[in-house]
Amino acid sequence: MVSFHTNDNVTPEQAKQIVKELYEQTHNLSNRKYALGVHIDTDEVHVHIVWALKDFNGKCYNVSNDYRVIERECEKLEQKYNLIVPENRISRDMDELDKIKELTLQDKKDIINKKYKDKHPSTKERMLDVRGVISNKKQMKDALSDFLNNASSPSDFINQITENGFNVIHNGKSSFSIQHEDQIFKASELGLSYKTLKAKLGDDTGFEQTLKNKHNVKEYENCSIASTEAEPDYMKKIKPNSVLATKFKFIQHSDKVEYFYNSASSKKSFEYYKDPSKVSFHDLSRQSAKAGIQRLVADAKPPQSFTVNGPDYFKKNVWLEFQLMGLEAKGFKLEGYKPTPADLDELKKIQEQYASMNADCMTIRTPIPPTSG
After folding, report:
1. For residue range 342-358, what is the model confidence (pLDDT) as tens digits?
2. Average of pLDDT values for 241-259?
3. Helical (H) or strand (E) element with 112
4. What does the alpha-carbon distance between residue 348 and residue 359 come to, in Å, rounded to a whole number?
5. Half-sphere exposure of 109 (CA within 13 A, CB side)
6. Which residues contact 338 (CB under 8 A, 6 or more apart)?
7. Which pTM value belongs to this model?
8. How far apart are CA 106 and CA 102, in angstroms?
9. How far apart are CA 82 and CA 181, in angstroms?
10. What DSSP string describes 272-325?
């Protein structure tokens, strides 16, 4: 993706042409299939590009560290079209580091990673930010920041958060995770590893014992979605590109089917029962909620009602996925949760983003060259 600064005076058509010029220089774009999409749904005009790995001559693109080539071409185009030049650019930093002969490649990587550590949020967080929705990870980081600033030691930080609704899961030695409601993150994911705490708050010889003392995993019971159908079809085939099919695997027993994450075989998402037709959850994330709904809907015949049970934040996740899947229009109804005004606002933001991506995306495609003979 190529993103333009908010102060760059470019139209969508100009943005498209600049990006074509960039990739013509770096990827010989006219000699391969590609697609461009110009998005104007955020403050920054940005262009997505997808290109074929093989060109029309059958040669594969294989350029090591091509970001340096691309960023150098970006700088030429910024000068040519009078665009805003970014303050930070990795290729520029690497060029300067290359001048220091004493540095090893790993030294350079460490320096770059340290400089840009807080400037590169995950892909998921960037997408949520575009949608106007704060990620769960950022919400937890923000909620924990005051405790960190007020703590006198790493152990004091742990004591403060456990007294204010957070659970600490001791993973061994000085490693730990933090749980709040249905969300669990490793301390390192939140920028709160012992190494970080030690650097900010000082060494703490009793930290491991504090983690052992405060270890507590909160379990949630009766988080489920139940169907009113007496004898549903059971374990019908599901769409191969669905979340359930691509992210989960299952083990079938005589009385139930257990679904686990592909990425972590020991992490159970939910259990699916036939009589009565019900999905009982072990993981309360939105991804699990969506997969569980897909399992029930695949075996159900509309009109059909489902009832969600559990804490409000879990029921909200189920309600949100139910709405985004457009199931009411297909004859399905969800009972057991009344959305709040904040829930409705969140749903509206997501739906508007999806709509704008469809409406504002202008796509062009190169024709496939004719074959000889």
Report:
1. 899 888 887 776 665 55
2. 91
3. helix 105-116
4. 16
5. 4
6. none
7. 0.53
8. 11
9. 49
10. EETTTTEEEES--SHHHHHHHHHHHHHH--SSEEEEEES-HHHHHHHHHHHHHT
Report the pLDDT value the prediction gives residue 122, as an integer from 0 to 100: 54
C-beta neighbour count of 233 within 10 angstroms = 12
Q: 125, 138 in Cβ contact below 8 A?
A: yes
What residue type is assigned to position 215 of the chain? Answer: H
Which string of b and e fits 294-316 if b means at least 16 CB within 10 Å?
bbbbbbbeeebbbebbbeeebbb
Could you report the per-residue pLDDT of 150-170, keeping only the tens digit for each?
A: 999 999 999 999 999 999 999
- DSSP letters of 48-83? EEEE-SB-TTSPBP--TTHHHHHHHHHHHHHHHTTP
Contact criterion met (CB below 8 Å) for 158 and 201: no
23 with 34: CB under 8 angstroms?
yes
Q: Please, which residues have CB within 8 angstroms of residue 330's CB and are 6 or more apart in sequence?
A: 302
Q: What confidence tens digit (pLDDT) does each residue in 265-298 have?
A: 677 889 999 878 899 998 888 888 999 999 999 9
For residue 372, what pLDDT is reported? Answer: 45
CB atoms within 10 A of CB 275: 10
What does the block give as tokens for 76?
Answer: 């030429």
Spans of all domains in the chain: 2-117, 123-214, 224-339
The span from the CA of 261 to the CA of 340, in Å, is 30
- Strands in 139-294 per DSSP E: 167-172, 175-180, 183-186, 224-227, 248-252, 257-261, 268-273, 278-281
For residue 64, the one-letter residue type is S
